[in-house]
Amino acid sequence: MTTPDPTTTSVVQVRGVTRIFGKTTALDSVTFDLEPGRIHGLLGRNGAGKTTLMQMLAGHDRPSSGQVRVFGHDPYEHAAAAARTCFVREGQRYPDEHRVCHVIATAAAVFANWDADLADSLLATYKLPMRRKVKKLSRGMQSALGITLGLASRAPLTIFDEPYLGLDAVARQMFYDQLLTDVAEHPRTVILSTHLIDEIGDLLDRVLVIDDGKLVLDEEAETLRGRAFVVTGPAAAAEDFADFRPVLHRERLGGFARITLDAPLSDENRSRAHAAGLEIEPISLQQLVIHTTGADRPDLEESAL
Ligand SMILES: Nc1ncnc2c1ncn2[C@@H]1O[C@H](COP(=O)(O)OP(=O)(O)OP(=O)(O)O)[C@@H](O)[C@H]1O
Question: What's this model's pTM, rounded to 2 decimal places?
Fold first, then answer.
């Protein structure tokens, strides 16, 4: 049994966590804290290490070295910490004979803050048949079941690992709206891992990006929204403008350039760009993550995110 750290207000503390599987270093000296009541985006390319990290937070795995604390305890050893965590992941397996009603009944027994009315309303919204076997649900329905569990559990730490697979755009938007509303009314700490970054950008309070096992970005979403911008126009003027500013990405087409700069989109930058005949625009969170993780290398597809 671990002794809780009474000095921390963090829900999650991760300190120098490394996880090695054979020859693969899935996580490499990762350190961060998560504060209560906020929605965190955990982003990164395929194989970056996101699921490995979430499994540790949920107490399903433990680091090769370093320390994980959830509510002040090692979640791997501490059933009570794990019971305050709801981990919703794609492809969750249930016993063959389990029907939707069995999954709901089990969740109601496990999660102390379970809200049966919310669960009923979500089941009706997503048209989930209570008597159907889970293995007979469509892919989208299985995702809807996961979302229902994640929201109705009202777990103090709720983790969604790509919860939307198979859901159409309307159903995904319903999930985002429900998440935002319910977390505002019943604050809890949420981790949302997704590749649909621009869809969830407005939901996030904080953004963590993992790349090749390393935490490469840990920033307030508000700070990121104004952190970088793109300048486009005649190449000479654009290059002149970019001089002395950190360049995240550069594209040339004939005499034109499109340069992404790691600099705030300030009024001064706007007026200087306009005076030089250049167009200026903020970059999306998705673009920023692509540049941060090197996914804009010519040999890599944007869809790899
Ligand atoms: N149990 C395991 N045994 C061996 N290697 C593993 C294991 N779990 C994860 N890995 C490896 O660790 C790395 C990180 O995998 P992880 O599933 O955490 O990535 P991810 O960021 O969640 O990727 P995706 O976005 O594709 O789901 C990958 O190289 C993966 O192959």
Answer: 0.87
> Residue 304 has what pLDDT?
41
Task: Take atom 8 of ligand 1 and give the residue whose Cα is closest.
Answer: 52
Residues 6+ apart with CB under 8 A from 39: 179, 180, 183, 190, 192, 203, 204, 205, 206
Per the prediction, the chain carries an average pLDDT of 89
Ligand 1 neighbours (beta carbon < 6 A): 21, 24, 26, 44, 46-52
Q: Among 3.40.1440.10, 3.40.1130.10, 1.10.3720.10, 3.40.50.300, what is the CATH number of 12-221?
A: 3.40.50.300
CA–centroid distance, residue 61 to ligand 1 (Å): 13
**Which value does ipTM take for this structure?**
0.97
Overall fold of domain 224-304: Alpha-Beta Plaits (3.30.70)
Q: Where in the chain are the domains?
A: 12-221, 224-304
Select from 46, 50, 165, 305 the residue to mutate for testing ligand 1; criterion: most ligand atoms less than 8 Å from CB.
Answer: 50
* Pairing between β-strand 214-220 and β-strand 247-253 as defined by DSSP bridges: unpaired
